[in-house]
Design a protein that fits this description.
The chain is mostly beta strands and 252 residues long. 13% of the residues lie in helices and 54% in strands.
């Protein structure tokens, strides 16, 4: 059964906002992996989050639009851009609350300043590379979505084609699990980790009839994880996205 779609929670406080933006057309390719691949990246204070006994990594490409620092200040030439990231899923017990979050293994954007800010404030694994995207309508209500990046002379990318109409993911579904992790965690160079909250409503998703990762997986994420990306994803879907608030981080 699908849930009623909530608005962005009302706990957002202006003095806690680090960044506001719109995330649109999130292409998500999800692969089952062994825990041994992820434990070296696990931030202090978190544990791996499983869905029905399975661990997943996701390659996610999306449009980052109308970006403002501290919810107020647009950054000239850096408001609209693509991002592609490789992530996995964790959880942390905070008192009586279980906080389900995301850890980024690799994040790519086309702007050096964007990568610098994310590395400086959160120690996130951002790099700046030439990037491109394509979003176009096909058939009856279908979409073809692609995100690409160039490393050296060679382009890599992810692409998918939707099937049917979008809808809220079912209760307990993998799509709900993937899209509804509202915290971010980043390991820090001198130990410990930073925790931050990302506010957004539940997203409608499209199922896809086909999806593809192509290119140099080793340069993207290293030899061990690259082997997982050469197989067929367990699932792939397109999330519509929404306005988001990324809150200031706190060190654990």
């Amino acid at each position: 059964m699908n849930r009623a779609r909530p608005d962005i929670p009302n706990i957002v406080s202006a003095d806690r906002i680090f960044l506001t933006a719109e995330w649109q057309h999130l292409a998500m390719l999800n692969y089952e992996v062994d825990a041994g691949l992820l434990l070296p990246f696990l931030p202090a204070g978190t544990e791996l989050d499983l869905w029905q006994g399975k661990l997943f990594i996701s390659i996610v490409g999306f449009r980052f639009l109308k970006t403002k620092m501290f919810g107020l200040l647009p950054i000239p030439m850096h408001s609209n851009f693509e991002e592609v990231n490789l992530r996995f899923y964790v959880r942390r017990q905070a008192g009586n609350e279980v906080r389900r979050g995301v850890v980024f293994i690799r994040e790519m954007v086309p702007r050096q300043a964007t990568a610098f800010v994310a590395r400086t404030f959160y120690n996130e694994n951002y790099v700046a590379l030439p990037m491109a995207h394509e979003i176009r309508s096909v058939g009856n209500n279908g979409l073809e979505v692609a995100y690409r990046w160039r490393n050296g002379k060679h382009w890599s990318g992810i692409s998918l084609e939707t099937d049917g109409n979008p809808g809220l993911p079912g209760e307990g579904s993998l799509e709900q699990f993937i899209t509804e992790h509202y915290w971010g965690y980043a390991a820090q160079p001198r130990g410990g980790s930073v925790e931050y909250r990302v506010e957004h409503p539940s997203w409608k998703v499209w199922q896809v009839r086909q999806s593809l990762f192509e290119g140099d997986a080793e340069k993207f994420c290293g030899n061990k994880i690259a082997a997982a990306l050469r197989g067929k994803p367990e699932t792939a879907f397109l999330a519509e996205g929404s306005a988001v608030h990324v809150m200031r981080g706190q060190r654990l």
